[in-house]
Design brief:
Layout: E1 5-8, E2 20-23, E3 26-35, E4 43-49, H1 52-73, H2 85-92, E5 98-100, H3 103-118, H4 128-143, H5 153-160, E6 168-171, E7 176-179, H6 192-206, E8 212-216, E9 219-223, E10 232-237, E11 244-250, E12 254-259, E13 264-267, E14 270-273, E15 287-294, H7 297-309, H8 312-320, E16 326-331, E17 336-338
Antiparallel strand pairs: 1-10, 2-3, 3-4, 4-8, 5-7, 6-7, 8-9, 9-12, 10-11, 12-15, 13-14, 15-16, 16-17
Helix pairs in contact: 1-6, 6-7, 7-8
Length: 350
């Protein structure tokens, strides 16, 4: 999902080398790199280093890793010499075949199954048959507004018969994936960007690299503190305007937002967004956005989707059951409510 978050550093827009920080007698400048090559979104890497060369080395490694995750997780393109999720969907279509894949795909699918269980089935990567219908109708509607229409409910219901995640068989010993329902397809949009961003952030931590922010289309991962030892400030955009709903202070956490304003099209003057309720097979109602703060961007991605589809009571129960995760909801009337620990992350003077 595309997210609309903007990462602020010292209350100014990110830019290359305009700020410096001295910590422990070592001066580090702030640098930023931007890419639009992966996950169909803008990726921004911000970090503090002693030189442009050192920053470029780290930023290139981050982008290279994100590029690999993009190629592995995409369901829209195949690549030479690689069996990715597009391969899994295409080879399983009517053929009931087992596909050997990269271990990174296996780990992500296992994580997605865990998220399915944690969200009581609301975040479901086996919804590909339903989501592809909405994707196709949305694409036509945006390209040709005069002929925009909704997917017929009978088609959606037929597709929904093929969304049982238990028909996704993962062999983690042999790194193979099998879809035992030949009409089922995978769509990992609810977890892929957050999962990839989190894996790269963990790589930096393992290498002892700190003082970075990775923003993959709004899946914002902070890696340690800024070079001066202070926390990062991240602003959450107001769906109804140009201001910001909240400013959060983070040092190692991630923040992810799902919103009805992010990807949509119009049919007969009414907007229909991309977050589909698995119960109704229609765009979820009730909220403009749901934001999650937690220690894992992949978890945040999955939870933001789930809470967007759940009632206030159900969503509150879910988020309060997950240690270290907090949420802010914005209703379709513009009202805000929060989980019990959200306020501890808000910037006091923001």
């Amino acid at each position: 999902m595309k997210k609309r978050l903007f990462c602020f550093v010292l209350s100014v827009c990110l830019s290359v080398g305009v700020l410096c920080s001295c910590h422990g007698g070592e001066v580090k400048n702030k640098y930023t790199a931007t890419s639009m090559d992966y996950f169909d979104t803008v990726i921004t890497v911000t970090g503090y280093e002693k030189s442009q060369e050192e920053f470029d080395r780290v930023a290139n490694e981050i982008l290279n890793q994100l590029g690999e995750y993009h190629r592995l997780f995409t369901i829209y393109h195949r690549f030479d010499g690689m069996e990715n999720l597009c391969t899994v969907n295409e080879l399983s279509d009517g053929k009931h075949r087992t596909v050997k894949v990269d271990r990174k795909i296996i780990d992500m699918l296992l994580f997605a199954k865990e998220m399915h269980e944690k969200t009581d089935g609301v975040t479901n990567i086996a919804m590909g048959s339903v989501l592809s219908l909405w994707h196709d109708y949305r694409t036509v509607g945006k390209d040709n507004p005069d002929v925009a229409s909704l997917p017929p409910m009978e088609m959606l219901k037929k597709a929904a018969l093929h969304t049982d995640i238990e028909k996704l068989i993962i062999d983690k010993e042999n790194n193979t994936v099998t879809l035992t329902d030949d009409e089922m397809t995978l769509d990992v949009g609810a977890v892929a960007k957050g999962y990839a961003a989190e894996r790269v952030a963990q790589y930096l931590e393992e290498k002892g690299i700190s003082g970075y922010v990775i923003n993959v289309g709004g899946n914002v991962c902070t890696v340690g503190k800024k070079a001066d030892g202070s926390k990062w400030t991240v602003g959450i955009e107001n769906p109804n305007g140009s201001d910001y709903l909240a400013y959060l202070e983070l040092d190692g956490q991630s923040v992810v937002t799902s919103g009805s304003y992010q990807r949509f099209y119009y049919v007969d003057g009414k907007s229909y967004h991309h977050i589909i309720d698995p119960d109704t097979l229609m765009p979820a109602k009730g909220y403009l956005s749901v934001s999650i703060v937690c220690d894992d961007s992949g978890l945040g991605d999955a939870l933001s989707t789930a809470l967007f589809c759940l009632s206030k009571e159900e969503g509150t129960k879910l988020i309060e059951s997950i240690e270290g995760a907090e949420a802010m909801w914005v209703t379709d009337k513009g009202e805000k409510f929060f989980s019990s620990g959200w306020k501890k992350y808000e910037k006091k003077d923001g």
